Amino acid sequence: MRKQLLICFLMAGLWSQAQDNALIKTQVRHTIDELVEFVAIPNDALNPSDINRNITWLSDKFSDRGFNTSVLPTDGLPLFFAALPMDSKKPTLLFYMHFDGQSVDPSKWDQPDPYKTVLKSRSGEQWQEHPFSDLDEDIPYDWRLYGRSTSDDKGPIVMFLNTIDLIRKTGQDLSFNVKIILDGEEEKSSAPLPAAVVQYRELLEADYLIISDGPVHVSGQPTIVYGCRGITSMSLTTYGPILPQHSGHYGNYAPNPGMQLSQILAGMKDSEGRVLIPGYYDGIELTTQEVDVLKAVPDDPEQINRALQIRTPEKVGAFYQEALQYPSLNVRGLSSGWVGPEARTIVPATATAELDLRLVPESDGARLKSLVRKHIESKGYRITETVPSAEMRASADRWVTVSEGSVTDAFRTSLNHPFGAHLKTLLTDTFSQPVVQIRIMGGTVPIAPFVNALEIPAFLLPLVNPDNNQHSPNENLKLGQIDYGIRTLQAILTTPLGE
Amino acid sequence: MRKQLLICFLMAGLWSQAQDNALIKTQVRHTIDELVEFVAIPNDALNPSDINRNITWLSDKFSDRGFNTSVLPTDGLPLFFAALPMDSKKPTLLFYMHFDGQSVDPSKWDQPDPYKTVLKSRSGEQWQEHPFSDLDEDIPYDWRLYGRSTSDDKGPIVMFLNTIDLIRKTGQDLSFNVKIILDGEEEKSSAPLPAAVVQYRELLEADYLIISDGPVHVSGQPTIVYGCRGITSMSLTTYGPILPQHSGHYGNYAPNPGMQLSQILAGMKDSEGRVLIPGYYDGIELTTQEVDVLKAVPDDPEQINRALQIRTPEKVGAFYQEALQYPSLNVRGLSSGWVGPEARTIVPATATAELDLRLVPESDGARLKSLVRKHIESKGYRITETVPSAEMRASADRWVTVSEGSVTDAFRTSLNHPFGAHLKTLLTDTFSQPVVQIRIMGGTVPIAPFVNALEIPAFLLPLVNPDNNQHSPNENLKLGQIDYGIRTLQAILTTPLGE
Q1: Which end of chain A is more exposed for a tag (fewer CB within 10 A), N or C?
Q2: Global ipTM
Q3: What is the pTM (predicted TM-score) of this model?
Q4: SS3 assignment, position A182
């Protein structure tokens, strides 16, 4: 009798699982159609009219789902905000995503129009195009949608909308109040965001911030990211003769700006990539528990190194995840005179290095830049903000023009935060797979203002495939990730805290 | 009686001087007309048909003056050779000049066509154009001809032709057998010259070589140059990730090629421009007498530094002329990633430095390049000639691709050579001005093969103004330099050795 009951119970469970799967597959198909429609609206943040047309689409789609929507003016392009009616007894989740995309160069894509989504399956090394009607019978989860922002970041927005639909269809309760803020110039660094976050702080008030941007860990496992590095930049220019000079007439006489620049840069790091500037790594300490979390990330160093075609990585950290716990100092560009077939026999007039500095919470951007400036001065150079005048050049040697980019702060939520544990549990339960926990990711999402100004604990929950060609030609979204995204968002929205 | 005789003699001298001046002025005018005709034939060595049309013109003009002419095939463009009938009792002078010119960008000139010579006078800061008929009454020696190769180096060729005319008109005897070799790709580095000099060594046999190329000393005084530096080049490329990578994901992990390149370059020199690579300056010693000759050059360091807008020059030599006695090591170009508004948040895949090394006779180009290679290896890098393959990158870190340019040797004739003293005496007598002696000039004229293969003592006798904008838009020739050039060549050709 008990055995029969158990079988009955199991069968009911299987049946309900099958019903759920069918419902989700229908929602995946609807997500595909809606995403194709959304991608068709170009979204280059360099073109404000693009952004406005996307906002119109978003207003319609969120209103249809019962959201109250607002367009929030900023110093730059407007933000889009939507919220479901509030219930004061529930905690509030704020989602952040962005609907702008990187500029496209159609000549580099394997399809005529990056805004006209193409469906493809892989056969061997080739990708083969399909009509969307091929999805009518079944949705093969290893097929992909190709188009700008399919993954970064329109896909997650449309998954979010369709998760709301699914929750309605299954009659589930939302365990949270739900707000969503959508950025229209994330790919342009979201310059207006810090001020806007302060201006609209009441509207944005929430207990937890969830950011869905970027891909899951390369292993494909469910992933929670607890923080991301910030960024700032510096540009250094050194000076030789006022105009390029004949290297015969003035080689050995006119100071060489490329050699000066090399001598400034060379001392910034040791030969294994560690910054030598005193104080650069101050304040960073890793506990044994933290190192254990970093080590638990299923990175495959051989695979990473093979992909980069490097034999030995830099030694800032003992392994990849550890390296990301430190600020970087990266020479992203060098230029002086001409190289290659255009090289000329000259002493160049100037040499320029572009640096970017990825920040961690312990490393204030302004502080690191002032350390770099001190290093430059310690080498006997004088710093100016502008191009030195003839008078300045006559009064002193060794000028360096330093210009500084703005600072986007890092953020990092504690690995011990209870909402992190909650997310980890629900992802484990939903997918029966180990969850990858990333203490801080290397790249920058400009949402530190939420964390710092609003003091909302923030978590990145990536939904898309790691090989999505984000920022590149042939950006794509694996259909299986839509299933993953909907299940993840459904679990988050419907699982009460403490369960 | 003696007093009357003396007056008579002086008057006769003055009359003959006045007659000479008139004859020379007529010849200057003819030189101007012939130079305008010659400049009108474009002479970009990148365009072989240009060079052939120039050779046709030269063949006509030299034949008209009784020269036997030959077109000498080489591995590249042909050389033009001409000689007057030989007299075995006389010593032989070989002249070297070139008739090709730098490429032109007409949009950067103040005249529509750089091959259509324009006559200009200065009034205040402005240059005013004149019809050539303005020269019919008088030739103002501070007016200028503007056009490509007016100075570099067609002007001296036409001065040479007209000096032969003048000598005929005055009934003077030539004190030398006269040969002239004209290069058609000097501005392209005369790559075929070394082999051609060996191939045609009997034809080119001579006692002395005179090169007329480049300007007189900036003081405007008569100038003899005893040598010029050679040149070679190296290109160094370092490697980071195989493709540019996101600086967030891989900053602190993927090796940075710009930092590697800076660290390689930085150690090559001290902060005052002296090469630190052991052996680089080996063999260079200056006697007190030589330093005295260098110091006697009327350079104005304040003027040089003001023109370059530098406060302190490099310290290879104690002063400008001394600096030129040493080989240089010049970073003429740097490139990695992107700079300025195009800077991207990447770890670049490669970084490249272009070096040029100006050579002196003590500094063999191959030896200096091997010292630079040793320096690179001493920093822990591996040198390859090609782009390292995936296998090479997997087997070792720190590859540097080094490619080497060809070597154009330096040459330097002894300051004590009797023919130098002869030239100095005749210039002093002709112009009643102190003569500037340059032991070695900084730039390179590719005639070392004559000196090294044919063992002919060589002297540069520049004829044109120092502010001629050689290699630049608005190249020009001051009319007074034509007078200077004709008088100089007349004195050289008609003054027997030992007078």
Answers
A1: N
A2: 0.90
A3: 0.90
A4: strand
